[in-house]
Amino acid sequence: MVTKQPKSAPSVRANTGQLVQPLDQWHRPFRDLRISLTDKCNFRCTYCMPREVFGADYQFMPQRELLTLEEIERVAIQCVALGVRKIRLTGGEPLLRKNIEQLISRLALLRTPEGEPVELALTTNGTLLASKAKVLKEAGLHRVTVSLDALEDVRFTHLSDSNVTVQTVLQGIDEAAAVGLAPVKVNMVVRKGLNDDQILPMARYFRHSGHILRFIEYMDVGSSNNWNWDEVITGQEIVGRIGAEFALEQVDAHYRGEVAARWRYKDGGGEIGVITSVSQPFCGDCTRIRLSPEGQLYLCLFASQGYDLRAMIRGGSTDSQLAAYIHGVWSNRRDRYSEQRGTEQVARPKIEMSYIGG
Ligand code: SAM
Ligand code: SF4
Ligand code: SF4
């Protein structure tokens, strides 16, 4: 990848004129950038990319529509100058994106205006992780989150609508930890009647493993999964079920805006997280902005429309124009979908999770 960017991100003033780090209309700071690298995936999880919608004739984005790695880096530099401290690569399945390690090695060079490295993380379904973990770590990745919704093969292949074995994903998790991408976080989306019987087997398996298991309430993202409330198992119920077998105590959040509520096993078996986006929304602390594969900037995960950065980039906008635009988008932000769920204000089309990446 050829790039003329300097080794460290320029300071806010150097690169964005007089712009200061923005706060939105609810005084939320601009902190996390999630970059979706592709809308493609080698799984067809029933809650995310159901095969009836994402079948053999589904038209994924052509390569030319995607932001190039250089264009992604350029957006990331502006976001870091404006306050972003954490970048997460996601998708679709981000490990399907060619040369992802080259992008990581460029992002690893970014520095905040205070001179600190930016935290770099990746969310993956884990299928390609065993073979790629080492190269990702060497490129400068700090942490990895692996999605795994069941421990039983039959259940797992049904949920992911693939023929990948659980063992393949577990090997990916172990390899990631072995190369130093630890602690690995393991995300399990819980859907009543489909995999809630896997909550305890998963908890037992990951206790004392050094990996952090996190349970995610099933969300109404997108329009293709026909979500309904009856399929949600709340975080409280999940903690109750695990707590009935292993004594748990709550742990303080690491920082403002941490989405997972943390619990630890009293016997020292490690910790779990619970992400209660549906039952106890945390929009007041939402510090995330999202970049889609073809360069649309989205705020809320449940947004209907984005802001076209690719048109600006390919239309010749300067870095300061780009930064001023992103600053304006964040400053005007007012969304808080999960707190308004079910009200008329939010009854409208939403982007798909497989496109924006969570
Ligand atoms: N393919 C990668 C993976 O599965 O980890 C990254 C993209 S995936 C869209 C990011 C995360 O979103 C995964 O952990 C997935 O389980 C979660 N997810 C997808 N649809 C969801 C839904 N309806 N509710 C809650 N989480 C969901
Ligand atoms: Fe693919 Fe991840 Fe969506 Fe599953 S959750 S279909 S692995 S993008
Ligand atoms: Fe943030 Fe939107 Fe999720 Fe609320 S619903 S936490 S505003 S992404």
From TrEMBL:
<feature type="binding site">
    <location>
        <position position="185"/>
    </location>
    <ligand>
        <name>GTP</name>
    </ligand>
</feature>
<dbReference type="InterPro" id="IPR006638">
    <property type="entry name" value="Elp3/MiaA/NifB-like_rSAM"/>
</dbReference>
<dbReference type="InterPro" id="IPR050105">
    <property type="entry name" value="MoCo_biosynth_MoaA/MoaC"/>
</dbReference>
<dbReference type="InterPro" id="IPR010505">
    <property type="entry name" value="MoaA_twitch"/>
</dbReference>
<dbReference type="InterPro" id="IPR007197">
    <property type="entry name" value="rSAM"/>
</dbReference>
<feature type="domain" description="Radical SAM core">
    <location>
        <begin position="25"/>
        <end position="249"/>
    </location>
</feature>
<feature type="binding site">
    <location>
        <position position="34"/>
    </location>
    <ligand>
        <name>GTP</name>
    </ligand>
</feature>
<keyword id="KW-0411">Iron-sulfur</keyword>
<keyword id="KW-0456">Lyase</keyword>
<comment type="similarity">
    <text>Belongs to the radical SAM superfamily. MoaA family.</text>
</comment>
<dbReference type="InterPro" id="IPR013785">
    <property type="entry name" value="Aldolase_TIM"/>
</dbReference>
<feature type="binding site">
    <location>
        <position position="300"/>
    </location>
    <ligand>
        <name>[4Fe-4S] cluster 2</name>
    </ligand>
</feature>
<feature type="binding site">
    <location>
        <position position="286"/>
    </location>
    <ligand>
        <name>[4Fe-4S] cluster 2</name>
    </ligand>
</feature>
<dbReference type="Pfam" id="PF04055">
    <property type="entry name" value="Radical_SAM"/>
</dbReference>
<dbReference type="Pfam" id="PF06463">
    <property type="entry name" value="Mob_synth_C"/>
</dbReference>
<comment type="subunit">
    <text>Monomer and homodimer.</text>
</comment>
<feature type="binding site">
    <location>
        <position position="219"/>
    </location>
    <ligand>
        <name>S-adenosyl-L-methionine</name>
    </ligand>
</feature>
<dbReference type="InterPro" id="IPR013483">
    <property type="entry name" value="MoaA"/>
</dbReference>
<feature type="binding site">
    <location>
        <position position="283"/>
    </location>
    <ligand>
        <name>[4Fe-4S] cluster 2</name>
    </ligand>
</feature>
<feature type="binding site">
    <location>
        <position position="47"/>
    </location>
    <ligand>
        <name>S-adenosyl-L-methionine</name>
    </ligand>
</feature>
<dbReference type="InterPro" id="IPR058240">
    <property type="entry name" value="rSAM_sf"/>
</dbReference>
<dbReference type="GO" id="GO:0061798">
    <property type="term" value="F:GTP 3',8'-cyclase activity"/>
</dbReference>
<feature type="binding site">
    <location>
        <position position="123"/>
    </location>
    <ligand>
        <name>GTP</name>
    </ligand>
</feature>
<feature type="binding site">
    <location>
        <position position="48"/>
    </location>
    <ligand>
        <name>[4Fe-4S] cluster 1</name>
    </ligand>
</feature>
<feature type="binding site">
    <location>
        <position position="147"/>
    </location>
    <ligand>
        <name>S-adenosyl-L-methionine</name>
    </ligand>
</feature>
<dbReference type="InterPro" id="IPR040064">
    <property type="entry name" value="MoaA-like"/>
</dbReference>
<keyword id="KW-0004">4Fe-4S</keyword>
<keyword id="KW-0501">Molybdenum cofactor biosynthesis</keyword>
<comment type="pathway">
    <text>Cofactor biosynthesis; molybdopterin biosynthesis.</text>
</comment>
<feature type="binding site">
    <location>
        <position position="45"/>
    </location>
    <ligand>
        <name>[4Fe-4S] cluster 1</name>
    </ligand>
</feature>
<keyword id="KW-0342">GTP-binding</keyword>
<feature type="binding site">
    <location>
        <position position="41"/>
    </location>
    <ligand>
        <name>[4Fe-4S] cluster 1</name>
    </ligand>
</feature>
<protein>
    <recommendedName>
        <fullName>GTP 3',8-cyclase</fullName>
        <ecNumber>4.1.99.22</ecNumber>
    </recommendedName>
</protein>
<feature type="binding site">
    <location>
        <begin position="288"/>
        <end position="290"/>
    </location>
    <ligand>
        <name>GTP</name>
    </ligand>
</feature>
<keyword id="KW-0408">Iron</keyword>
<dbReference type="InterPro" id="IPR000385">
    <property type="entry name" value="MoaA_NifB_PqqE_Fe-S-bd_CS"/>
</dbReference>
<keyword id="KW-0547">Nucleotide-binding</keyword>
<feature type="binding site">
    <location>
        <position position="92"/>
    </location>
    <ligand>
        <name>S-adenosyl-L-methionine</name>
    </ligand>
</feature>
<keyword id="KW-0949">S-adenosyl-L-methionine</keyword>
<comment type="function">
    <text>Catalyzes the cyclization of GTP to (8S)-3',8-cyclo-7,8-dihydroguanosine 5'-triphosphate.</text>
</comment>
<keyword id="KW-0479">Metal-binding</keyword>
<feature type="binding site">
    <location>
        <position position="88"/>
    </location>
    <ligand>
        <name>GTP</name>
    </ligand>
</feature>
